[in-house]
Amino acid sequence: MGQVIKVGMADLNICKSPDVLTTIGLGSCIGIALYDPTTKISGLAHIMLPDSTQIRNNSNIAKFADTGIQKLYDDMIKAGANRSKLVAKIAGGAKMFELSNASSPGTNIGEKNAIASRAKLKALGIPLIAEDTGLNFGRTVELYSETGQFLIKSVGRQEKYI
């Protein structure tokens, strides 16, 4: 195993095999993993919100699904990833807090983040091959650039690879 590269909230990074990308504390946030199995170039974004166009102070492009996934994609292509080979996996998007006024569907930010992430991946033509989203618990993820495996860890739950 190579170096472990941490990705913070509203952050993204790429690496090559044998390095590992990790991000902690995915509650309503989404971790988007992009992977090219031929070059073993990997990317991980930790997005917090679905849509940069809805926010006035949106200078941090990694914070949003629409701009963060685009930047991750662009960085990976620049690094030599093959756009036709890229695949995606996502995790997070939990409903962390029950709000009494949020009983109507579609008000859950985690769900909106997941929907926006899927839509952006589809727009870029990147197949979403696995996901672990929703429910009400946080996740920590690790993306292994050697294999493309995406490890999901949650307190009190079995670790799993997707």
Describe the overall structure.
The protein has a single domain, classed as 2-Layer Sandwich (60s Ribosomal Protein L30, Chain: A). The protein has 2 helices and 10 strands; from the N terminus they run βββββαβαββββ. The strands form 2 sheets. A 5-stranded mixed β-sheet has the order 1-3-8-9-10, with no helix packed on it. A 5-stranded mixed β-sheet has the order 2-5-4-6-7, covered by helices on one side. The longest helix is centred in the last third of the chain and has 16 residues, at 109-124. The protein is of the alpha+beta class. It has helices at 65-78, 109-124; strands at residues 4-6, 11-16, 20-26, 30-36, 41-47, 87-92, 128-133, 139-144, 150-153, 160-161.
| CATH architectural label | 2-Layer Sandwich
Q: End-to-end span in angstroms?
A: 19 Å
Identify the quaternary structure here. Answer: single chain
Order of helices and strands: EEEEEHEHEEEE
Structural class estimated from helices and strands: alpha+beta
Write the layout of secondary structure elements.
Elements: E1 4-6, E2 11-16, E3 20-26, E4 30-36, E5 41-47, H1 65-78, E6 87-92, H2 109-124, E7 128-133, E8 139-144, E9 150-153, E10 160-161
Parallel strand pairs: 1-3, 6-7
Antiparallel strand pairs: 2-5, 3-8, 4-5, 4-6, 8-9, 9-10
